[in-house]
Amino acid sequence: MYNPFDFEALYKEAQDAVKRSKSTEDWTKFGYTDFEVWKEDYKKGQMDLYWLCTKLLHLDLIEATHRPITDDLFVRKNPYIEADNWKQAVARQSTVKNRLLLYPRGSFKSSIDRVDAIQWMLCFNNIRIVYMTAEDTLATEFVELTRAPFEVSDGHLLTRFQMLYWAHCIPAKKVEDASLFTSRAKKEDVKQPSVRALSLGASTVGKHGEIGKIDDCVSNKNSGPMSNAESRKKVTQEIILARSIVDRFGYIDYVGTNYNEDDAYTALENTIPDLKILRKPAWTVLPHARAKNIPELLPEDVELLFPVDGAGVERLTFKAIMTEWGIDAFICSCQLLLNPTATKLAKFTEAMLRKAIIPHNQLPQPGTYFTAQAWDFAKTDGSGSDRSVGMNGQFTISGPLAGRMFVTEIVRGRFSKSDLPFQVANLALRGQPVQNLGIEKSPGADFLENDIKRALVKVGYPDAPSIEWIPVDNQKGAKNARALTLEAVFENGQIFFSDQIPEEVMKEVIREFVVFKGDSNRKNDSVDSCAHLSRYLPKDIAPPQTEQEKMTAAWELLAQKQEYEKMFPYNPDKDSDVWKRDGYDRRPEIVPAPTHWEGLPIFPNIEQQIYGT
């Protein structure tokens, strides 16, 4: 059975070191003349991360702010777990192997991360930890700060931490390689150090560990405002590739703050299935103030995460956050509020819209799509009011155009309450069969439901789908958030408009897109209607991107079409005017012309009557 610690030998070694350094006064003050007290604190430092941070390494933490990190997110270690060897004990510490900590800058998240690395060494002498950061210098600094508590200087008294964990301590001297640290307690004959520093993108050949600390790999250089989508994608790929340095039974902690809405942290959330996430912004806006813009907020409108530290020093106060917002709102929204989209407004250009207009002969083939309709109703039909806008869209589910939407018809205008139901019904009739019929539930819109149903019956489409009432989101930024989602659809090449849409209609739609402002409630009817329509895009169908993917999808569609034609061969009679359209697949009944009337012959022409046949 694995028995990692000989406490009597460890106590004697620490006791001798205390005498040599003349630290007996503090030894007595902490009660360590009693072996059981010393042993209890030794174990406490191994198993209580918050206590290790605050009592032994003197971080000025706050319980409400930092206990969720130390107690709930990071692995709660127990080196005394039943196991056959230390590696098996490490593997059994937790079933969750990946963790993501997103806290604001200046909230001590990286400091706690370093103490967590120290605690791993205190629990498992032979463990190997790898720090990875965006730059070499930062990773090396992390190693130096991790080494510092273990360094003992000549002529200096021992710290309480060193009195407990003397077996790990080393003399304070200039080291040849600051990016490495090896604990004195490391006994296993493995040349690799206890702690190693690496930068993102550096070679990982021959480097391994049981613990990975991916701390601040996302930086202002590789993911900030001056970066592009390609560079941010590269960071994500490098981080995922670097995971291989950590043994499968080990643990990886990702620590940092957001720099962009599509940075590596967002990608990791969508990539790693067992990722445990702790995210807390510098403030949480209280329910009564969620309709306010950030500059309108007052101190009583928010709950602060870390206004003062354990020493009473001001940290992320309301004033400090507002100051940062005034200097650079985008950086503040990323680094402190952990919400990169808080300041981003959707922007559409005429070129973006014009590029999405395609010839009608490039619309998807029947059988590869379903049709949906979405409406944004205006509140009134007055001359100065917004317009009601409805759109029919074809959503492809197979073939080379899969995962895209094609707007085939747009209806917009200031319709009266009596005319509006028929506009909805006629648009549905022209797009039938319609699978989804969505209407924004603006004030009073649902009162038209029965009128719309009656109009559908009158125009000849009684089996139209039930209306799906789309809830109205009146929170600040909701309209902009919908438009940002729609903007992404445009950028991904997933939306197109038929050239059969009248030019005067399309011209007005383009104008409304171009002048759209996410913080305004006027003249955005087309954007809203289109955003509502895009909600029906299939989420589980990825559009074919490469030519090979498109060709494969086209061949699959052709194969399906050929199979259909084998089962249901073409019948030319169906194209004739006399073919019955009653739903039954049969030839028309041809009644022969009569040859007699009341016993007398009927002659079709006069020549036959005179000369006979």
Number of domains: 3
Rounded radius of gyration (Å) = 36 Å
Dominant shape: elongated
Q: What is the mean predicted local confidence, pLDDT?
A: 87
Measured as a percent range, the helix fraction is 25-40%
**DSSP strand (E) fraction?**
15-25%
- Main-sheet strand order equals 5-6-2-7-8-1-9
**Sequence stretches where pLDDT stays below 50 over 5 or more residues:** none
Protein model, in words:
There is one protein chain. With 613 residues, the protein is an alpha/beta fold. The protein folds into three domains: 273 residues, 3-Layer(aba) Sandwich (Rossmann fold), CATH 3.40.50; 60 residues, no CATH class; 198 residues, Nucleotidyltransferase, domain 5 (2-Layer Sandwich), CATH 3.30.420. 37% of the residues lie in helices and 16% in strands. It has 22 helices and 20 strands. The strands form five sheets. A seven-stranded mixed beta sheet has the order 5-6-2-7-8-1-9, sandwiched between helices. A seven-stranded mixed beta sheet has the order 12-18-15-14-13-16-17. Strands 3-4 form a two-stranded parallel ribbon. Helix 3 packs across helix 4. The N and C termini lie far apart (117 Å). The mean pLDDT is 87.
Quickly describe the structure.
This protein is of the alpha/beta class and 613 residues long.
List the helices and strands and how they pair.
Elements: H1 7-20, H2 24-29, H3 35-47, H4 49-56, H5 63-73, H6 86-91, E1 98-102, H7 109-123, E2 129-133, H8 136-147, E3 151-152, H9 160-164, E4 170-171, E5 180-181, E6 195-199, E7 209-215, H10 220-223, H11 229-242, E8 246-256, H12 264-271, E9 275-279, E10 283-285, E11 302-304, H13 318-327, H14 329-335, H15 350-355, E12 357-358, E13 369-376, E14 388-396, E15 405-413, H16 420-431, E16 434-440, H17 449-458, E17 467-470, H18 478-491, E18 495-498, H19 503-514, H20 525-534, H21 547-567, E19 596-597, E20 600-601, H22 606-611
Parallel strand pairs: 1-8, 1-9, 2-6, 2-7, 3-4, 7-8, 12-18, 13-16, 15-18, 16-17
Antiparallel strand pairs: 5-6, 10-11, 13-14, 14-15, 19-20
Helix pairs in contact: 3-4, 11-12, 13-14, 16-17, 18-20
